[in-house]
Design a protein that fits this description.
This protein is an all-alpha fold and 63 residues long. The protein has helices spanning 2-34, 42-62. The protein has one domain. Keywords: Membrane, Transmembrane, Transmembrane helix.
């Protein structure tokens, strides 16, 4: 039971990291396309990316 719980946690963390990579690459693409760092598209995504990164760091320190 404990081994399967650990496997599920690892898979969820991997999915979360993939989602974070997608958000960060989307931010990079939008910055490249608009040639500005803070636009109405990138600013909210940066906030979401920072929150996701903070949550990932917090979760990995708990384990």
């Amino acid at each position: 039971m404990i081994a399967s719980d650990f496997d599920v946690q690892v898979k969820l963390i991997i999915m979360y990291v993939v989602g974070l990579i997608v958000v960060l690459s989307l931010i990079g693409y939008l910055i490249y396309k608009h040639k500005q760092i803070l636009t109405k598209f990138t600013a909210p995504l940066m906030v979401v990316g920072l929150i996701m990164l903070y949550m990932l760091i917090t979760v990995t320190r708990l384990s």
